[in-house]
Structure formats: structure tokens, C-alpha cells
């Protein structure tokens, strides 16, 4: 039972309450245009080879193993004295429809994406992927309990995600032609709509009073404007296209003054006050370290997904036990590592940070960037 409001200002202060996602009925990827654009860097050219198959099935054995590993994560957190909440479980495969498109709904697995906790406020974001538009319904009962306990609760404008509402500017700047993806969109247009506010919570990293925000296109810049207007007491730092969307497999603050960073080249995107922080570069992982899904599907996450760790406090980090190189490196830096197995992270598109939403941490609205 939740008796206190949300309180989560950063990524590292002692974790008290957390939401852990679930993968029930995640038995297919719905590979429409919104899905393809969102995961483009990782699914190209596999989606082209699967043209004409809107649903790419995921074997039940994989779904069972994914849920088994998620249960292991929830149990590890609970063993550490953390209150663990879970979303409602969809009781069946759910097909959804808007006036402009239809899709197979995605279950509430990567719960970091459609919500940001900013201090004492729950913020529901504006999904990129059509199949995820109703995903937060599975979290509503928990959000109401926090609301009743005194939390503030806001929602970004819900996007229509009609044809033509997603900005492809990031790909154009990178010299990548996605016209074959946008041209094959089966959704209907909405007259006069243009580019919408579209944004995921995992495009943010919270540092107390300061929040890093990746904005790679017009959709994201509209969201950054919304955040600045809704939270004038916080400082939102633009990371100008550090990635196409999520950043929690690019930069992961572990505590004040120390971060995981995919590559030193990404320092140039960060606020000047962070460029002097100590940096840990994750050890490389070869493709052979991951399961092969080529018989039925493809990876939707990159090989960097295992740097997507979850901090329990400034000295304790949950790391995939299948990434011993990172475990050894963090232990060598004085961290206590909590190993949890996570086999299908590239197929599910998320690591431990993605699968969790920290509802209550002990930290406050501190200033870590001067």
C-alpha cells in the first residue's frame, strides 16, 4: 500500500519504492511505421526483409524466460528492502484502434518510457510508438494511489500519431533515407496536424534540480518546451541529438561526479559542468554475447543495452549477470554489484533502467551542476 507521494529527483539516491514492468502477452512486435522509425538504427535492414508482416511473433518460450528474468529483478530489489510495485497484467492479446490506425498493444514492460517522475510529480509522456498509446492504463491504479497520497500528476498532450506526425529530421541530418518507411505508412493523415509533441521519459536523466533532455527533432523540442513551462523550478539542459531518442544506454549518472558513458565523444553533448565528471567507459561486448533471434525476428536494442543499469544507491548497482566485464569494472571502482540475469534485453528493447520506474528515492531537489 502506498502511503506517501512520489519523490524522485535523481538516478542514484537510496531507492525506496520502484515499479517493475511485466512482459505478459508480449508475443509479437507490431512493426508499423512508428515502430520502424523509433527503432530504425537497430532494425534496419531486418524490417525490410520482413515486409508485409505487420506482426512478427515472439515464441512463448522467450516470453516465459523474459518474465522469469523480470521476476528475478523484482525479487532482488525486494530482498534489498525496496518496495516493489507491478503493473496490472493484460489478460489477453489486445488490439487497439484510433480513427487513423490500428495496432497490437505492447504490454507495460519498459515502464521508464511513458512516464517521468520529476520530484513529487508523475508525468505521463507522449509515446512515439502507436502500439504503446494505452500502455499506461496498466499503471493507472498505482498512479491513483500515489495521487491520493499527495502526488502531483500531469500528462503531456496525447499524440494522434496520424500519418506524417513524426519528424524524420534526425535521420536526414545523418544522411539516412527513411522515405521507404514513411512511404509505406498505412495510417491515415489528419488534416492540418503537422509534427506533434512526441517524447519518452527515457530521453531524460535527472540530476536533482537539473535534468538532461535529449531532443533530436521537432517532436522532441515541443516536449522540451512543455517541460520547461510545466516545471519552471527545474533547469532542463538540451542534449542536442545525442541519440535519436533514449539516452539511458548512452549516459548513466551513477552518483554526483561519476557516470557511465558509452564513448568519450559524447562528452561534447553534455553540460559544461558535467564534462569534468569522472567517466567509466563500459567494456565492449561482441555480438556473439547475445542470443540469436534471426529464425523469427531481430534485435530492437543495440549491443550497448547492458550499460542500462539501475542504481539502488550511490554505491550499489544492479547489473546484468551476463555482463561480467562491467560487473568486474564497477566492483573495481568500489561499487557493490547486484547481479541479475537478463537474457532477452535486445529483443525486448530494454535493460534494468528501462524496466523500472523509481517512484520514491531518498534524495531531494539538490544542485549537482554549478
3D structure, described in words:
With about 375 residues, the chain is an alpha/beta fold. The protein has a single domain (about 15-360), classed as L-arginine/glycine Amidinotransferase, Chain A, CATH 3.75.10.10. About 20% of the residues lie in helices and about 20% in strands. The protein has helices at about 35-40, 40-45, 45-50, 60-80, 140-150, 170-175, 180-185, 220-230, 325-330, 345-350, and strands spanning about 15-20, 30, 55, 85, 95, 100-105, 115-120, 120-125, 150-155, 205, 210-215, 235-240, 250-255, 260, 280, 310-315, 315-320, 335-340, 355-360. The chain has a three-stranded mixed sheet, with helices on one face. Strands 7-8-9 form a three-stranded mixed sheet, with no helix packed on it. The protein has a three-stranded mixed sheet with strand order 10-11-12, with helices on one face. Strand 10 (about 205) and strand 11 form a beta hairpin. The two termini are about 40 Å apart. The mean pLDDT is about 95.
Q: What radius of gyration results from the CA coordinates?
A: 19 Å
Order of helices and strands: EEHHHEHEEEEEHEHHEEHEEEEEEHEHE
Largest sheet report = 3 strands, mixed
Which oligomeric form is depicted? single chain
Structural class comes to alpha/beta
Separation of termini? 38 Å
Given as residue ranges, the uncertain stretches (5+ residues, pLDDT < 50) are none
Strand tally is 19
Order of neighbouring strands in the sheet with most strands: 4-1-19
Tell me, what's the shape? globular
Amino acid at each position: 500500500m502506498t502511503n506517501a507521494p512520489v519523490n524522485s529527483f535523481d538516478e542514484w539516491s537510496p531507492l525506496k519504492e520502484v515499479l517493475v514492468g511485466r512482459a505478459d502477452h508480449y508475443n509479437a512486435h507490431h512493426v508499423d511505421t512508428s515502430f520502424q522509425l523509433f527503432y530504425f538504427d537497430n532494425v534496419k535492414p531486418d524490417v525490410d526483409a520482413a515486409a508485409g508482416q505487420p506482426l512478427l511473433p515472439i515464441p512463448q518460450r522467450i516470453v516465459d524466460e523474459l518474465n522469469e528474468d523480470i521476476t528475478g529483478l523484482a525479487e532482488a530489489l525486494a530482498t534489498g528492502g525496496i518496495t516493489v510495485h507491478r503493473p496490472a497484467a493484460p489478460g489477453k492479446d489486445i488490439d487497439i484502434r484510433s480513427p487513423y490506425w490500428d495496432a497490437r498493444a505492447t504490454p507495460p514492460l519498459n515502464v521508464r518510457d511513458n512516464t517521468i517522475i520529476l520530484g513529487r510529480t508523475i508525468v505521463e509522456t507522449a509515446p512515439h510508438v502507436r502500439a504503446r498509446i494505452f500502455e499506461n492504463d496498466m499503471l493507472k491504479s498505482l498512479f491513483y494511489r500515489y495521487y491520493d497520497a499527495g502526488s502531483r500528476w500531469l500528462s503531456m498532450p496525447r499524440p494522434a500519431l496520424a500519418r506524417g506526425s513524426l519528424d524524420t529530421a534526425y535521420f536526414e541530418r545523418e544522411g539516412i533515407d527513411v522515405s521507404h518507411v514513411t512511404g509505406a505508412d498505412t495510417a491515415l493523415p489528419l488534416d492540418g496536424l503537422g509534427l506533434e509533441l512526441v517524447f519518452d521519459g527515457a530521453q531524460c536523466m535527472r540530476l536533482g534540480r537539473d535534468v538532461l533532455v535529449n531532443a533530436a527533432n521537432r517532436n522532441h523540442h515541443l516536449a522540451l518546451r512543455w517541460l520547461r513551462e510545466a516545471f519552471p523550478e527545474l533547469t532542463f539542459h538540451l542534449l542536442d541529438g545525442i541519440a535519436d531518442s533514449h539516452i539511458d544506454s548512452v549516459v548513466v549518472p551513477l552518483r554526483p561526479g561519476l557516470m557511465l558513458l558509452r564513448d568519450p565523444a559524447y562528452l561534447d553533448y553534455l553540460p559544461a559542468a558535467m564534462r569534468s565528471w569522472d567517466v567509466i567507459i563500459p567494456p565492449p561486448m561482441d555480438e556473439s554475447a547475445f542470443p540469436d533471434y534471426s529464425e523469427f525476428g531481430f534485435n530492437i536494442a543495440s549491443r550497448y543495452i547492458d550499460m542500462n543499469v539501475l542504481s539502488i544507491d550511490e554505491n550499489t548497482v544492479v547489473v546484468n549477470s551476463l555482463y561480467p566485464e562491467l560487473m568486474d569494472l564497477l566492483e573495481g571502482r568500489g561499487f557493490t554489484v547486484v547481479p541479475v540475469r537478463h537474457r532477452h534485453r535486445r529483443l525486448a528493447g530494454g535493460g534494468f533502467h528501462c524496466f523500472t520506474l523509481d517512484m520514491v528515492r531518498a534524495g531531494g531537489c539538490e544542485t549537482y551542476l554549478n
